[in-house]
Amino acid sequence: MAASRVRQMYLSAKNAAALDTELMSSGGFSLDQLMELAGLSCAQAVYKSYPPESKRSVLVIAGPGNNGGDGLVAARHLKLFGYSPTVYYPKRPNRDIYNRLYTQLTNLKVSFTDDIDTAITEADQILDAIFGFSFTPPIRDPFVHVIGLLESSKKPVVSIDIPSSWDVDSGPPNAGEIGAGFVPNVLVSLTAPKPAARFFKGRHFLGGRFISKELADKRGFSLPEYPGVDQVVELPTENEKL
Questions:
Q1: Annotated binding site for K(+), which residues?
Q2: Binding-site residue set for (6S)-NADPHX
Q3: Does the pTM exceed 0.85?
Q4: Residue 4 resides in a domain
Q5: Residue range(s) defining the domain that contains residue 57
Q6: Fewer beta carbons below 10 Å: N end or C end of the chain?
Q7: What burial class does residue 217 get, using C-beta atoms within 10 Å of its C-beta: 0-12 exposed, 13-18 middle, 19+ buried?
Q8: Is residue 114 situated within a structural domain?
Q9: Percent of the chain clearing pLDDT 90 (strictly above)
Q10: Annotated binding site
Q11: Which of 219, 190, 165, 217 is nearest to 45 (CA)?
Q12: Closest to 77 (Cα-Cα) out of 42, 48, 102
């Protein structure tokens, strides 16, 4: 499928937060719904990038916030898509929405691990669901160690919305900072690409097939044409835009 050619517009951290607020107020969506749609989009992007026939074992690294919740939803769909997901979830919040996602995964016999070093070694690919657009430094343990492992790992990585450790507006960390060497292979932007995506040169997908044109126009971003019944669309690389 050819990448969708649409005039690229970026959604800052402030505007992304405002959009989420509007979606969950006048938009009529619940957090559960948005998480489900995001996680399904990410699972589809993983399938398009690394199908289970080639890279069946997926390590999902989930952070403590909504980005981690998206990763848990993606893990459920990946299991049903024929993958063998394992979840590393070291900072699980004691909130109903995350507890239910955890229960859904355990009911599907999805494994959870505390041994991140071994899990990365054994995985065929990694889904980075640690930090999203609301991330602000500094990175704290255990994620300092985790980001270091991602920097040194040769396994393909798919990042949800923002590569973890990157600033949503200004992009990757400076040389010498934690995460400066972390560049995922695939990025799945949610709703609209964030400014940090300008610095990303890999395969780039967009998920968000639930936004009305009216809302997109109001918030100042463009909607691509999604193919068929897909929940994600591949965006052109910088070279393809020329």
A1: 67, 128, 164
A2: 66-70, 132-138, 161
A3: yes
A4: no
A5: 13-241
A6: C
A7: exposed
A8: yes
A9: 87
A10: 66-70, 128, 132-138, 161, 164
A11: 190
A12: 42
